[in-house]
Amino acid sequence: MKSKALLLLVLLAKVHCTYAQNKLPSLISAKSELKRVNTFPFFEALPEKPAKEEKKKEEIVNSPAKDIAKVDKREIAPPPAKPAIPKPSSDTKPNVDPEAISTVYFSKRLAKTSIKENPYFYRLVKFDRATNQPKGTVQDFYVASDKLKFEGQYNKYENIYEERNTDYNGVCKFYDENGSYVSRTYIKKKVVKEIKHNANGDPVGETTFDNAGRKKAFSDYILDANGKQIGLIKGAFNPKTNREEAVKQLQYENGKLKSEVDLIDNCPVSKALHYTEGGLVHEVYFQDFTCEPGGQWKFTNKSFFSTSLKKTPAGFQIKAVGEKGEVGTFQMPINYDFSTKHFEIVAVFDLATERPMTEFGIIWEYIDKDNYSYLKINTAKKSFEVNSVKFGITQKYMTGVRQLPLEIKQSELKISFKSDYNGKQYTVNGEPLKYLRGNDAVNFDKFARTDPTKESKIWNVGVYFKSSAINDGIILKSIEVKML
Questions:
Q1: What are phi and psi of 118, to 5 degrees?
Q2: Do 183 and 207 contact (CB within 8 A), yes or no?
Q3: In degrees to the nearest 10, what's the CA dihedral of 247, 250, 251, 256?
């Protein structure tokens, strides 16, 4: 009995030691493999859903992010998703970089072309993807020089018909290839201001416009060949007369006023004021042929001649279309006491035609085709005549006068007749016309008059020409009658 009780005590001691050993803490090294220990029965895997087999470390490192997320979403955050890029389809536009700059080439006729087809200019432009309209500033460049041709913005842009691209917006600059340019300000499709600049960028003119597109006010500098300012044109649109009116002023080298002339619709009137450097003023009647001659100018024997106005350079071309030997005159009435006061009549002719006339000159005291006085030169004979015609009969002041031959070395000839305190003087290109008195050459100074006894204060003054064959021609550059 005692032996049985002793055996029972030994078994109980053994059970107690085993339980105590299980209760002692155990040390786990860094290299030890982590093991999951379930201490509560509810964490144990259910029989119908067996626990998944843990993956090895190498497999976890090499697996895709989506697989890592599946292992334990609570412990490992997924990487940021890449943006989806839609594929272009037939009904969607391709994905174009909105900041990309397009280069478009054009011919002189404003037709789109390519670099291989010898373009005249090219355009750098950014197009908006949604509207296909320019985004920001558009720049055009000359192909030959890469210099600016245009810089500005469009209010509305035509992608097909370039000639329709005139709807500008804001300040736009239009350049010549030499660097000069015009800056125009547009508001609601209309030009409200324009500033002209020379090749150095200096302003040389400014204009503001009203709502009807008329010049509300403007000023333009007049420059010489070296770009120096020698004058100014200043004016505005006059709504009362419904025309553009201005004053053209020229200056001497010292800046003093040299002349003033009124302009109507950009054409000079026939009367101007000239100033000496000392400040004395005198009137001038003139025609410079920058525009058609005004209504005061009269043409006689017009049916025998054709006329045309040349723009560059300005001139009035007269051509014989009737019988040869016909005389034509071109003159206007001037109210001035020529008989007692000083004056100068000046006309500039250009012989640069295929078949120039050989006889031409200036007239004064013109009454009709049978009564006038004149100075004419003959380029074929290299001679001159100063005579008057009265009732159709020439009063020869040149009888017995021996002349020196004229030296005509250029196609443009300036002929003048001047009467002042020094007497009467006739010149060609500034050289006095002379004749021989004995062996001496002296200035010709006879004053031809139609009617010396009649002191008329109104003279018709102008130019004279005579054809020697059909299609003879001459170009009249200018006429001036100066009241000295």
A1: 55, 65
A2: no
A3: -40
Question: What is the chain's percent helix, strand, coil content, to nearest 5?
Answer: 10, 45, 45
Whether the pLDDT of residue 229 is over 50: the answer is yes
Q: How many CB atoms lie within 10 A of CB 298?
A: 15
The answer to whether the CB of 376 falls within 8 A of the CB of 385 is yes
| C-alpha separations of 443 from 122, 204, 252, 424, 440 in Å | 65, 46, 31, 9, 10
Residue 87 is which amino acid? Answer: K
- For 38-86, the DSSP string reads --SGGGSPPTTSPPPPPPPHHHHHHS-HHHHHHH-TTTSPPPPPPPP-P
- How far CA 228 is from CA of 160, 176, 232, 247, 256, in Å, comes to 43, 19, 12, 20, 15
Q: What is the pTM of this model?
A: 0.65
Q: Which two tokens stand for residue 110?
A: 């404003």
- Classify 391 as helix, strand or coil: coil
The values of phi and psi at residue 467, to 5°, are -90, 150
Average pLDDT, whole number, for the chain?
A: 82
* Cα-only R_g, the chain: 50
* Digit-coded pLDDT (tens) for 154-169: 999 999 999 999 999 9
Contacts of residue 352, defined as CB under 8 A and 6 or more positions apart, other chains included, come to 411, 412, 475
Q: Which phi and psi (to 5°) does residue 323 adopt?
A: -70, 155
Q: Are 12 and 19 in contact (CB under 8 A)?
A: no
The rounded distance, in Å, linking the Cα atoms of 355 and 319 is 9
Residue 285's nearest CA partner among 270, 263, 297 is 270
Distance, CA of 147 to CA of 141 (rounded, Å): 5
Cβ distance 107 to 99 under 8 Å?
no
163, 110 contact by CB (below 8 A):
yes
